[in-house]
């Protein structure tokens, strides 16, 4: 954490703590103070002029500011870095607050980033990697003690470590004679623990001398778009390297359905398998270089992926995943020698794949549930991973239910006129001046705006709704006096960025069709959550914790998500963000064999619902096609603000 | 069994039951009636003339018999086939019995051939092959039942066969989708049972339709000289094909030591492995052709071999097997995918290797102990496999002890002037006329004699001793009036075959050095047995059963073996011969998973003795360097005959 300083905003008399090095406009945005900004914070529109009253900020002079203004302390908020305590006045033209800020928009809440790690496992007493190295000092052979070399190892493990019922692999038997005699019967053996507690421990490697501190594992998440890997020190639990790359399959289709279609072609499945293995091998190679570890030192690899990715990786026929009644080949996968799958690892490394629940609730979700400890918690938890499909798991240590809902691609920028993936120039944060209706656009990378990404879309819709610019159905008020609201090709729209400030050759706007697509997406998710929880006889108000996973989850503005009815109204302090839940779960499996052991039982008791087969779901979905919901009693805070005549539109 | 007829021998008035088709000289030999025969029964010496008195025998006229003699019923015993009841007179020149036959040589006793087989297992309730096929009729998929294909199989196995905790291999997962849908969800799955009862059953294959009756296994014995294989129908337990071939390693040394020395050379180990794998693959190919079975239909293979052969087959370093303190790499071997060893079988076939006890008591012996059921018997049993090394196991279900003794190569024809392996022309049976000292030589294949094989050597020494021609030290009586006893290059010798009746260009004789080598060999074995049994506080008279294994065991004349003191005096009715005990054990493992499961525990409680390290052994060995033994009280019957002034020499 950096050093803390304070920024005092005038005339609203708000003192905000921030870190040295933060950009002024981000500090304002974070606490919901509006400053006009059209260019995404790239410094070209010059609209975010502010006046420094006390103290100083860092940053070069913009050409939008005259030298005399600069000397008087005028700056652009998007180009000023906080370095000390400072007082900043927002000019009236930039802040048309009438009677101060609405309560509803004070502050921004992101989910608390939660890094499940070795400390968590240590506290729970389950830090227990699936592979372990132990050192043995064995007596030399003699005529009165001429037990076989392998027997000597077994005896040593029994005497020194109370290990029983061991199986020594052929590869180890082939090395054992030399290894024992190279350093006077001092060796290190690698033990691979069984997935089932009833199983046997395997001796999978032997080295002469003492190497107990060097034991490593790899965790991999095979995403449809991106494959991620982590190299983990299994002795300390630390992550030594991270690497990610596009899934090599991506040129054969962006989503799982198109991959399946390709795999059904002659030689298609082989190609799909090869491509993803090549990607993983590239990642492994990068991890090894980054961490400076030998390939042979990797003793274990855990892989999590959605059901289709898992099928393609293992060369299982994915055909029926895309056809009713959506039957995968398998949801459980046996331990497999990594080299048998084409992975470039030592011959003794075993690959474990996370089991899946169904065709559309895959091992990536199971990994999140296992790795986050959700399956061990007493709190009634909603785990949600939002992408094209949103996967939902609800439950606790007692029971777990799950479902996949087709949210459509809105959250990934699909079906939105100016939608795009989260990349440079994507509007990711937004505010609106309720007096002038001027926007405050913040883009990724502070580049001139080129489109709207999922997190931006959520905030834009929430802000338009908050300020009464769109109604509960997502329709624009026709009576707002601003050229930014106009009738376009797809009905009414709000112009976020005029062409001259945009990074593309047109205005950037959001229209009613876009908003309608967004509402359908959020409705599918909310209806999924509500249907699922009601199927087990509870209601959304019973939830005690929400865990967000997936790339989208890290950017999600919780207040906006609740304002639009994407998530139930909830204390933001009880929302955790776990990032890539799939990778996290794979890593946690590398750190705790308990998780590997528990997963079989967890998956078996996890009840999966096909939402399309649940009578109630359609009704719930239709009821959710409002902002935030037709049943406003589900969103009491928003309901109160609607009733109190705040800026939320009452139509 | 053929039809029974009787042969009555005159003048001894002995009626003998035999089968139609038996050769007359064999019938006589079997009951100890002497008929001179020099040419091994090949029909060239003409010495075995007999007179048919009643009835007829089949066989062409020999040129050694004149037409008039032939018409009078004169025949050669070695060229006459019994076809009906017949009375045969042995002329005085051929039979110089004085006062009838000695009691000591009435009849010949071979060990009872015992074929351990499926009926035995059925009686004991342990016919339970390690792989099994079961048919499943599964419900088709639907939206209300869209369980994964693999889950459907697991569910079916649970519901229809009460199978639990199954693991489905990757290879099966890859086939499962098509297999299920090809015949309306009717499939056959192959279940591989765990070696340990606590382990899991694996589903290793899936086929559409019903194939439960087609399930096969292979048993292999890797002998140092010869490799044997059997193809077994695991549904019926029947042996469908047999095949054997020289171990391809043989051109790199005849014994295990020379193979180890070769394996220590650069690339030597790889070559040894390749050669034996090639041999096994040839045998597998022949078995498949003979039984008309597809390679993919073989679901299991069990291999037994001595410790060196096992090491070479698995590419384990055999170096220390031949160096004190004789430490093998391992005595236990994990289950290994057959294809990983280079065996040409289906990818799902698992190879199981019999565990060994030590460097010189190998998996071949363990296989015999397991397969013969010795480890389950209440009878105190001596199991003995005689070759260059004799491996001895003593015990019962309660305890087992074992040792290897270096008998030297005498029983395989080594170190004997005219010694040879059991092949055509080898003298394998022998008698001596106590009056004329003329021999009765019977050869393998009834070819003119070319040498003496192990079983012949035993009978020759026993007969020379019985008739008082050699003394207890194996020295020839100097006063016997026959040109057949003479002083040769290596001391006194007895001429078995004169050159003109031999298949080689010299006389064939046995000399005192040969006899001395034989005595050392038999002494090592007897001393091993006696030492071992006394180490556990018992004596040889406590033995209740003897099991003979190995090629030599099938030819061994029990009376001769007891006369010379190779085996303890024992009721021949309690001596079983199991043939190739190693192959038999491998087959029994294919028929009963109980044996596979029990072997781990049996091997662990089997106490191995290094005889060279047991103080008592040397003493026992020296005491055994007599015929039958210095302590004649150990051989009361022989002792009685010695005392009764029978033909056994008393010097």
Instruction: Provide the domain count of chain A.
Output: 4
User: How many strands, what sense, and barrel or not for the largest sheet of chain A?
Assistant: 7 strands, mixed
| Mean pLDDT rating of chain A | 91
Task: Indicate the low-confidence ranges of chain A by residue numbers.
Answer: 93-106
* Global outline of chain A: globular
- Identify the quaternary structure here: homodimer
How are the secondary structure elements laid out?
The structure is a homodimer of 651-residue chains.
Chain A: E1 4-10, E2 14-19, H1 24-30, E3 49-54, E4 57-58, H2 67-71, E5 74-76, E6 81-82, E7 86-89, E8 112-113, H3 118-124, E9 131-137, H4 149-161, E10 167-168, H5 170-182, E11 186-192, E12 202-208, E13 216-222, E14 226-233, E15 239-246, H6 256-263, H7 268-291, E16 298-305, H8 307-314, E17 336-337, E18 350-353, H9 363-371, E19 381-386, E20 389-395, E21 400-406, E22 426-432, E23 439-443, E24 451-452, H10 454-466, E25 485-488, E26 491-497, E27 508-511, H11 512-535, E28 545-549, H12 551-555, H13 558-564, E29 575-577, H14 581-591, H15 593-605, E30 606-609, H16 615-623, H17 636-643
